[in-house]
């Protein structure tokens, strides 16, 4: 580790929601949870609330089993469990974005059982790239903003513009951090780089941005902490929060050089254009960013896009790290794997459920992939 | 109760006509030289295809046939060997496996599509499934995107779906090289309305005690309204079926011997187990009089403004609304059919149908005092089903009534 700012941020990983609870106590403001990274955080921020991403956690289910079948992904099952047992009692409300069938139903179940004061749904289009979908999307975002104002208080255009600037600054810094690692992976272990991105969705954005500035300055001044000679890998999946797994990958002689996780690259990729009205700008970012498999974007071949990105990053292998029962990712897997094969990038498909990840078993498979690449 | 005690339910005479109708339809789809083939999802706006002389082919209907004829698992395993997870929807798996091996319940498998029409009002799964079909067959896909309704439907959602009706017309003109005709569409819409109204009349006869058919019969006889609504043949067929059912009602003929209990079914049938389940309930004098599945095709279209009313109807289907709105419909079904309880199939393959059932089951019991049974299974993948356990649970449930 290098520097006090990074130390501070890394400490947060042991208690990811401590910062949000502290913020609420300090400011008396409202905290709004959300699951999907298509949630327009800038709007929540501009209305004076703190947007906080919920991604479930490693735990045994105690209460959500009465609401969700065991063939539902652990992200939804552990997330709901946290809401029902009081772990998320610091939330004033939740925003659900139409993502997949599970999130769509979780929104209903959450609204009826979790007992938070505010509940907002944002039903984005699934079909992108048509003018009717664009019109629908901007109308839906505008009416979502109106709904938020009623619940959280006024959201001035000027405040939204300022929020967008701040969030863009944060995105630019995260992109820079990833870029620095691409050039010199040894400066920062991947799990710490990913935590820099993940934690951005868990605390006050201005505070996080200040920490990032410091971290980058420290990294620029410091020397590599690891030799960076690990086999470079590309990570594919939705949320990656298995820090023990990432430590094991590093021990196995590999490092993720870049990723497509939605708490990683996909979280900060693509800035909101600042030369158009704010709501339109937010819509343009959601429209243009690298896509989640839940969106139908006919002109973009997700397999080819990911293979290109992995190649450009210099990755020698790829790991799919997928939530068991996650349909959108599982449907894309054979196609994306084929595209990686074509690009000469061997890959490994790992399925997991939060709370039951067996590092020992995964170690053998990761080790085998690393050996294949080295051979 | 032993098997000997189960009195055979009377056979529905119209079944033969239905079989003939569906056979003719598949023969035409398999042999046509001039008509284009479009694969379409079960909740899709088929009227547009019929109006353009396109033959609609339903992988889900074929999936049900594969499930009932117990060849689904073998086909699904083909897809699994291609890298598709066993946790994915079994209709999708068996369809992908069937396409890859040109196999299925139809000799040689389903006819190759010229293009695809995917409507996501039933699930997000179909979007991913059809994306794969589009890659596999190398044909274009039209996604008909119907925004999910959590509370009420905003005006911009109706407008979005209506615009897509126009985009779909453009798409079909391009794919078929034919010109769109408003007049022909009005004709088809009218036949669709007539067919749907007749289907509603058929379902209505089950309000009688005893009920002239069970939902297991409805699952079989729904095939024409799903696949071919908007055609004269469907109208003719449902007149026949309605008359037969009304005659049964007039003569007091019930589908289940000495009907004692009336139940509502929720979710897609367990196709490979339907006959056994039917016998199990019938043997207990329990009749499944209605369900949330076959009523899904009873959508309203207004002839004065078919596009707006279709946009509205296709967005409001049962699987595209929140569980509180589903509860209202479930309670209405229970009341309308004087039901004594609810049987829910928790279907591994179908998250939009199944997630929320635990809450719905509790709410129904709280609001009506009537019990609910949840059966854990899968619509076509029999590997996810335990017969012994289900039998035990059904028996215990009937005792609780």
Short descriptors:
heterodimer, A: Rossmann fold, Rossmann fold, 2 domains, 15 helices, 51% helix, globular, B: 401 residues, four-stranded parallel β-sheet, disordered N terminus
General description of the model:
The complex is a heterodimer of chains A (375) and B (401). Chain A is an alpha/beta fold. Chain A has 2 domains: 4-156, Rossmann fold; 159-374, Rossmann fold (3-Layer(aba) Sandwich), CATH 3.40.50.11900. Chain A is built from 15 helices and 8 strands. Chain A has helices at residues 4-11, 18-27, 41-46, 74-84, 101-113, 131-152, 157-183, 190-200, 205-221, 243-251, 265-268, 278-288, 302-312, 327-342, 359-374, and strands at residues 31-34, 50-53, 93-97, 118-122, 231-237, 254-259, 317-323, 347-352. In chain A, the strands form 2 sheets. A 4-stranded parallel β-sheet of chain A has the order 2-1-3-4, sandwiched between helices. The longest helix of chain A has 27 residues, at 157-183. The two termini of chain A are 31 Å apart. The model of chain B is unreliable at 1-5 (pLDDT under 50). In chain B, helix 6 links the parallel strand 3 and strand 4 (141-144). Chain B starts with 14 loop residues before the first helix and ends with a helix. Chain B has helices spanning 15-31, 47-51, 59-68, 72-81, 90-101, 125-137, 155-176, 182-204, 215-221, 223-227, 232-251, 274-283, 306-315, 323-336, 351-354, 357-368, 387-400, and strands at 37-40, 55-57, 115-119, 141-144, 261-266, 286-291, 341-347, 372-377.
Summarize the structure.
The complex is a heterodimer of chains A (375) and B (401). Chain A is an alpha/beta fold and 375 residues long. Chain A has 15 helices and eight strands.
Low-confidence stretches of chain B: 1-5
Mean pLDDT of chain B: 94
Q: Based on the structure given, which CATH architecture of the largest domain in chain A is correct?
A: 3-Layer(aba) Sandwich
Please state roughly what percent of the residues of chain A sit in beta strands, choosing from under 5%, 5-15%, 15-25%, 25-35%, 35-45% or over 45%: 5-15%
Helix content of chain B: 40-55%
Enumerate the strands of the largest sheet of chain A in spatial order, edge to edge or round the barrel: 2-1-3-4
Percent helix of chain A: 40-55%
The helix-strand sequence of chain A is HHEHEHEHEHHHHEHEHHHEHEH
> What's the shape of chain A?
globular
SSE succession of chain B: HEHEHHHEHEHHHHHEHEHHEHHEH
CATH class of the largest domain in chain A: Alpha Beta
Widest sheet, order of strands of chain B: 2-1-3-4
Number of helices of chain A: 15
């Amino acid at each position: 580790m290098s520097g006090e700012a990074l130390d501070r941020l890394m400490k947060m990983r042991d208690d990811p929601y401590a910062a949000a609870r502290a913020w609420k106590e300090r400011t008396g403001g409202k905290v709004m949870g959300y699951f999907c990274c298509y949630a327009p955080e800038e709007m929540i921020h501009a209305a004076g609330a703190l947007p906080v991403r919920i991604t479930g956690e490693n735990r045994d289910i105690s209460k959500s089993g009465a609401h969700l079948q065991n063939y539902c992904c652990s992200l939804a099952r552990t997330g709901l469990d946290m809401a029902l047992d009081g772990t998320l009692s610091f939330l004033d409300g939740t925003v659900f974005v139409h993502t997949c069938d599970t999130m769509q139903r979780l929104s209903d179940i959450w609204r009826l059982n979790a007992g938070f004061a505010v509940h907002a749904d944002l039903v984005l289009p699934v079909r992108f790239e048509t003018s009717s979908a664009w019109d629908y999307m901007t109308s839906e975002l505008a009416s979502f903003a109106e709904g938020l104002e009623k619940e959280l208080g006024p959201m001035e255009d000027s405040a939204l513009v300022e929020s967008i600037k701040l969030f863009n600054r944060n995105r630019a810094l995260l992109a820079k951090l990833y870029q620095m690692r691409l050039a010199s992976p040894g400066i920062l272990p991947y799990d710490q780089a990913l935590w820099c991105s993940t934690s951005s969705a868990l605390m006050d954005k201005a505070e996080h941005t200040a920490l990032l500035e410091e971290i980058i300055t420290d990294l620029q001044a410091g020397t590599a902490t690891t030799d960076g000679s690990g086999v470079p890998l590309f990570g594919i999946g939705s949320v990656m929060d298995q820090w023990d797994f990432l430590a094991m990958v590093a021990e196995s002689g590999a490092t993720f050089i870049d990723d497509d996780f939605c708490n990683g690259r996909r979280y900060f990729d693509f800035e909101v254009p600042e030369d158009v009205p704010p709501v339109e700008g937010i819509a343009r970012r959601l429209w243009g960013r690298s896509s989640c498999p839940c969106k139908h974007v006919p002109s973009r071949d997700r397999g080819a896009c990911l293979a290109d990105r992995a190649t450009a990053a210099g990755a020698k292998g790829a790991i799919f790290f997928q939530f068991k029962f996650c349909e959108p990712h599982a449907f894309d897997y054979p196609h994306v794997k084929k595209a990686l094969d074509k690009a000469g990038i061997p890959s490994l498909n790992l399925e997991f459920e939060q709370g039951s990840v067996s590092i020992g078993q995964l170690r053998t498979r990761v080790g085998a992939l690393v050996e294949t690449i080295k051979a | 109760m032993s098997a000997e005690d189960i009195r055979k339910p009377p056979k529905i005479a119209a079944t033969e006509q239905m079989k003939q109708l569906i056979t003719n339809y598949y023969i035409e789809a398999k042999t046509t030289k001039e008509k284009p083939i479009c694969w379409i999802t079960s909740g899709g706006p088929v009227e547009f295809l019929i109006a353009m002389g396109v033959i609609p082919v339903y992988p889900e209907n074929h999936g049900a046939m594969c499930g009932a004829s117990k060849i689904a698992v073998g086909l699904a395993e083909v897809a699994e060997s291609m890298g598709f997870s066993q946790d994915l929807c079994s209709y999708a798996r068996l369809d992908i496996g069937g396409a890859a091996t040109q196999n299925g319940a139809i000799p040689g498998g389903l006819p190759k599509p010229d293009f695809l029409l995917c409507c996501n009002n039933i699930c997000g799964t179909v979007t991913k499934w059809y994306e794969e079909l589009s890659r596999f067959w190398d044909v274009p896909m039209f996604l008909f995107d119907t925004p999910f309704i959590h509370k009420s439907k905003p005006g911009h959602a109706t407008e979005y779906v209506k615009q897509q009706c126009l985009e779909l017309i453009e798409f079909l003109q391009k794919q078929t090289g034919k010109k769109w005709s408003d007049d022909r569409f009005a004709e088809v819409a009218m036949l669709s309305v007539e067919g749907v109204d007749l289907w509603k009349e058929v379902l209505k006869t089950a309000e009688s005690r005893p009920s002239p058919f069970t939902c297991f019969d409805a699952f079989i006889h729904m095939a024409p309204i799903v696949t071919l609504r908007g055609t004269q043949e469907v109208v003719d067929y449902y007149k026949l079926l309605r008359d037969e059912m009304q005659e049964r009602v007039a003569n007091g003929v019930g589908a289940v011997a000495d009907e004692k209990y009336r139940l509502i079914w929720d979710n897609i049938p367990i196709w490979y187990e339907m006959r056994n389940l039917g016998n199990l309930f019938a043997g207990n004098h329990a009749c499944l009089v209605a369900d949330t599945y076959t009523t899904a095709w009873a959508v309203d279209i207004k002839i004065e403004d078919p596009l707006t009313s279709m946009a509205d109807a296709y967005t409001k289907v049962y699987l595209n609304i929140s569980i509180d709105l589903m509860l209202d419909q479930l309670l209405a079904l229970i009341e309308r059919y004087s039901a004594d309880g609810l049987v829910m199939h928790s279907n591994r393959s179908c998250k939009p149908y199944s997630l929320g059932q635990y809450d719905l089951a509790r709410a129904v019991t709280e609001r009506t005092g009537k019990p609910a049974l949840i059966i854990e299974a899968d619509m076509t993948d029999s590997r996810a089903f335990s017969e012994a356990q289900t039998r035990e649970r059904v028996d215990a449930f009937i005792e609780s009534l």
